[in-house]
Write a structure and sequence with these properties.
The complex is a heterodimer of chains A (123) and B (108). Chain A contains no helices and eleven strands. Chain A has 123 residues and is mainly beta. In chain B, the strands form two sheets. In chain B, strands 2, 4, 5, 6, 9, 10 and 11 form a seven-stranded mixed sheet that branches. The chains are: A mainly beta (123), B mainly beta (108).
Chain lengths: 123, 108
């Protein structure tokens, strides 16, 4: 069974750094893109960007370029999303999701999704 | 960037009735459109890809149609577990991949 398991909830202060994780299992992690999606409280889904575990090729949404860094350690089937200086406006739930195995790298939809990591930034 | 617009924002439907949700793209995305369902407190779940192909395990009361810029998700005979928020997502022209703002289907 393809599964993505994300790290637990975080409570941080503005200005602090943070790295959350997403571990894949049940499939060949290195050959399927991993995307990150933000969901602010009571709001919809926002696509942040995508990373290819095989070579760490990364594509960011313009809205998130320079705000976060995506990385991956394919030796342990884990993708990461990190911030160097959190803001209160980063408070949200963050989901990782993987390219559906029957989709292509050009035309991809996402399945399954991780359970989400709640990030709360408050002084 | 392709902007996806969903309507209505909220749809009130009685159990057993059908629901029709719309998704419009700011430019043609061919049939490169997916639909996701999100229940409160849960992660999104893939329902439809290729505008009309049901994902594995999705009941046939869910159907998708459309191409180009106009798409529809129809849920026939709504069950209690179908009350949720539904999102469309285009994957024709990216980055960025873009989602619609969502349609909440609530119990009337």
């Amino acid at each position: 069974e393809v599964q993505l398991v994300q790290s637990g909830a975080e409570v941080k202060k503005p200005g602090e750094s943070l790295k959350i994780s997403c571990k894949g299992s049940g499939y060949t992690f290195s050959i399927y893109w991993i995307a990150w999606v933000r969901q602010m409280p009571g709001k919809g889904l926002e696509w942040m960007g995508i990373i290819y575990p095989g070579d760490s090729d990364t594509k960011y949404s313009p809205s998130f370029q320079g705000q976060v860094i995506m990385s991956v350690d394919k030796s342990i089937n884990t993708a990461y999303l990190q911030w160097s200086s959190l803001k209160a406006s980063d408070t949200a739930k963050y989901y990782c999701t993987t390219q559906a195995q029957h989709s292509s790298s050009r035309y991809m939809w996402f399945d399954p999704w991780g359970q989400g990591t709640q990030v709360t930034v408050s002084s | 960037e392709i902007v996806m617009t969903q309507s209505p924002g909220t749809l009130s439907v009685s159990p057993g009735e059908s629901a029709t949700l719309s998704c419009r793209a700011s430019q043609s995305v061919s049939s490169n459109l997916a639909w996701y369902q999100q229940k409160p407190g849960q992660a999104p779940r893939l329902l439809i890809f290729g505008a009309s192909i049901r994902a594995t395990g999705i009941p046939d009361r869910f159907s998708g149609s459309g191409s180009g810029t106009e798409f529809t998700l129809t849920i026939s005979s709504l069950q209690s577990e179908d009350f949720a928020v539904y999102y469309c997502q285009q994957y024709d022209n990216w980055p960025p991949l873009t989602f619609g703002g969502g349609t909440k289907v609530e119990i009337k």
